[in-house]
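Before the break, one more example. Copy the sequence into your notebook; we will annotate it together after we see the structure.
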Amino acid sequence: MKNNQELQSDVQNAIKWEPLLNAAEIGVTAKDGVVSLTGVVDSYAKKMEAENAAKKVIGVKALVEKIEVKFPNTWSKTNAEIANEVLTGLKNDWSVPNDRVTVKVEDGWVTLEGELPWNYQKEAAKSAVNYLMGVKGVTNNIKIKSESHDAIEKKDVEEAIGRSWSVDDSDINVSVSGTTVTLTGTVDSWYQKEEAGRIAWKTSGIWHVKNELAVDYEYAFS
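Here is what the structure looks like once it is written out:
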C-alpha cells in the first residue's frame, strides 16, 4: 500500500510526464487515496490532461479537481465566437450526427445537450470541444437513446468485460434492468473502473450505465 507521500509523488510524476503540461502549474495533495489537484492553466485541454494522468495512477481511489482555466487577454473570445467554433468542430467530426447536439456557452463554459444513439458519439462530441481555445469547461448533458430494440443480455455484458485484458472482472457484478446496466463490485484502479464502464456502454440497446464499482488498490493484494 502506498503512503500519502508516495501517492503524491507518483501523481506529480505522472502529470510531469505529459508533454502538454508544466508540472509547476498543478498542485497535488494526497490523503488515504484521495488526490486533490489545484492550480491555474491556460487551456481546458491541460485541465483534462492533468485529470486523466492522475486517474491512471495506481492507488488513486478518488479525485478532487479544482484546477482553474484562465486565458491571457489576447486569447479572449466572446461566447458567440466560441459557440460558432464548437458547432464547426461538431460538424467536422464524422462520428457526431449532424443537427443532433445543441450548444450553449456562458462565460466560456460550454454545455452540450441533445440525444444520440451511442455513448461513443457523446464522448466524441465532448472531445471535439476539449482543445478549442477559449473554452473554460464542458458540461456534457447529451442523453443516450438507443435506436436498437434489442433486449440487453446480462451474459453478453459480462463476457464483453471478461474479454478485456486490462480489466480484472473477478469481482465485477453486472445487473440489467430494462435499458440500464449497473456495475457493482471492486476493481484495483480507476482506469479499470472507467474501462469496464466504457465496455458496458457498447451494449446494443443501452440507454444508461450506472458505474458503481469501488476502487481499492489494496484489493489487488488481498
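The mean pLDDT is 91. Residues 187 and 215 are 5 Å apart (CA to CA). Try to locate both features in your own notes.
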